[in-house]
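Re: the 80-residue chain
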Amino acid sequence: MVLYTFYNLFLSQYNVFRVFELKKASVELNAKISRQRAENSNTEQVLELIRENPEHFKEKFAREYMQLQREGEYILLFKQ
């Protein structure tokens, strides 16, 4: 009986050390899940803002990423 207990605790596939590794991996995965949920929440908030005022974000996109300007307006580009 003692032999089987020793085998199960230290030599089997799911020994004590493996259980601790799995527990540590579980904690890390839970932390990653919570970070992803927070990121998804922020993305949903941005999406809601875009749905509420799409024209503002269209203009913002055009100005920032496509470097478009209004008539009589100048854009100065600086090297980073």
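The mean pLDDT is 86.
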